[in-house]
Automatic annotation (TrEMBL), chains A, B:
Compartments, record wording: Mitochondrion
Every Enoyl reductase (ER) domain range: 44-381
Catalyzed reaction equations: a 2,3-saturated acyl-[ACP] + NADP(+) = a (2E)-enoyl-[ACP] + NADPH + H(+)
Gene Ontology terms describing biological process: fatty acid biosynthetic process
EC number: 1.3.1.104
UniProt keyword Lipid biosynthesis present: yes
Name of the protein described by the UniProt record: enoyl-[acyl-carrier-protein] reductase
Chief localisation class: mitochondrion
UniProt record similarity statement: Belongs to the zinc-containing alcohol dehydrogenase family. Quinone oxidoreductase subfamily.
Keywords annotated in UniProt: Fatty acid biosynthesis, Fatty acid metabolism, Lipid biosynthesis, Lipid metabolism, Mitochondrion, NADP, Oxidoreductase, Transit peptide
Amino acid sequence: MFKRAAAQAATRIRAPPCARGFSVSALRLANRAVVYSSPGDPTSVLSVLTYPDLPPPSPSSLNVRFICSPVNPADINVVEGIYPAKPVHTDELAQGHKLSDAVYLGGNEGLAEITEVGAGVEGFAKGDWVVMAGQQLGTWSSARSLKAADVIKVSKTVSRVNGSTLTVNPPTAYNMLHDFVDLQEGDWVLQNGANSAVGQMVIQIAAQRGFKTLNFVRNREDLETLKTQLKTLGATEVFTYDDLKERSLRDRVKQLTSGKQIQLFLNCVGGDATTQMTKLLGADAHIVSYGAMSKRPLTLPTSLFIFKNLKSHGFWQTRWYAQKTRQEREELMQKLVAMKLKEPEHEIVTIPAGDSDEQATKRVRGIIESLAQGQYGKKVLLSIEQPT
Amino acid sequence: MFKRAAAQAATRIRAPPCARGFSVSALRLANRAVVYSSPGDPTSVLSVLTYPDLPPPSPSSLNVRFICSPVNPADINVVEGIYPAKPVHTDELAQGHKLSDAVYLGGNEGLAEITEVGAGVEGFAKGDWVVMAGQQLGTWSSARSLKAADVIKVSKTVSRVNGSTLTVNPPTAYNMLHDFVDLQEGDWVLQNGANSAVGQMVIQIAAQRGFKTLNFVRNREDLETLKTQLKTLGATEVFTYDDLKERSLRDRVKQLTSGKQIQLFLNCVGGDATTQMTKLLGADAHIVSYGAMSKRPLTLPTSLFIFKNLKSHGFWQTRWYAQKTRQEREELMQKLVAMKLKEPEHEIVTIPAGDSDEQATKRVRGIIESLAQGQYGKKVLLSIEQPT
């Protein structure tokens, strides 16, 4: 699919390495997107493609300009073709201007500002901020034309960072805390990967709701610093997986919880430590898994299910969106904005207007490579400027 | 606790190896029970104890004579002290006649005939047949005095074998088929250990309800005979765990089910084969575990929970009884009797009236030993005659 010679022949268009360009020339090339022709290693397949100005939105649609769009781990898996959610595949980026090859659009989450409202769209105005209500809408773009049904308006009181990271991690944390166990103020929640992006949201949301959190993290040199950070967020107690080897741990936890049974365990790790952690649960507890950072499966003694009545579920925010009404989705976004959650640690990486597509492509692939090597250690948010 | 010398001194009483006898002598020694002084290896700790005639039942109670009482695998675990349900511990077998040491009573399940009805008991008459509504009531006895609330009347149309095995395996199968997924006629159920006692009940009950069963068993020399037996019971299809290695299996299953998604998986095995079997499940399926015959835990990829929305539960009939009303329990027993299920393969072992307690003890321990060595290959039902 990579036809550099053909691409270079399209002189008026900045040639994307993965698509041959447009069937018309002499357009105002005003927008950009991170695209790929076929799934694969993102450091090889992702390209930045410059494309014409969006035409006015069609009925029931809106044109938006993206403010910030995060690069989430799942986004990488989508590009690799190993994630169950599938990206947009299109040969039209600016309506009516066909690409010679269809491309996939990267990016699932983002904050955007409405630039133009189509006929028959109610409840939205130019200048409003929106987040995505639909999945995999190609948010790694400078602009997009989207169905009004696919976006949700958010208050402009939200920060750019919180707005652009509002639809995946915070609702995952919120829903896992509410959809499985009817927790009451003072009830305990057990979680591992507690310093992950979702884990930190769990801590904050639980604290706001009056739930207590028993958090587990990996041991590390600066453990006390991390414990302090998590406690500042609202964590009730922080342990390490090494503590699971201590025979006294169950007694310590029993003392801490005043013997109150723990009914909810949020798991994003898997493997041995997770199995060990289930011993801290009370009867009839629920383990809800949303990740497997250890890359190990979930191994649980059958007796836990039979005699302690443990129930094991998974949580996937994408499924939640698919199953809920628009009103429920809007209400949740409003609740999360109102919680004024602490911004995740982040770096905003700008794709500058003056970059050529080759330069921009190199920059995007470099970001992915650094992420893969764990060089950021924080969330990367793309800010894709309109090309000049 | 084993005080043979003291026991031998109690001349008028047949000395049980585990209890010193009664505090009164010159009683009519009319009953027998399998008892133990402390939990442990059943081939060492179980003893047969002869004890006096039951007095007339106290108010709200009944006297019963046991017809047949199975030795279930869980009963052995109770004697060993490794099962969550705890046995009766008493120093009174015939009310008012205290044992010098308290003993545990063996046996959880059984069919009994009412011999005498206490004051204030309604709905029961002498000669009625009853099964146990309560747990761990000491059914390895010739007779017992029980609270009317602890028994459920069953129709005398039930066979002795089906009546004595009515409260554990058939309701486990029935409830697992009904409590997790709202199966409709033509829906499929996946199960392993399909030739186990519960597995065979699942096959029969599913067939009567119009559900189709996809059954897995271990490979063996007489596999075709077993397949025919299970299909005669109502199994729709039978595979072996070896078939899981065939890449074509998923396609075969898809063809068999006409692509209908399998929503319920009943598991009593665990380990690798069980993990493999989950690949045959559809989205939103439930895996319900009621045993772990492989002695391996349940290991499931986290992605199954997150993306396929698999839910993993356990089922324990003891918990079901604890959570349900008497009316629900009675209705279930009536339904199961009306289903006229095929009797489990069994051998009725009589503890003859003429045995001394030593002889009877030896016999009981021998049964347990043969069971442990897998020499029966079928269910053993105790029939404990009144000593002469």
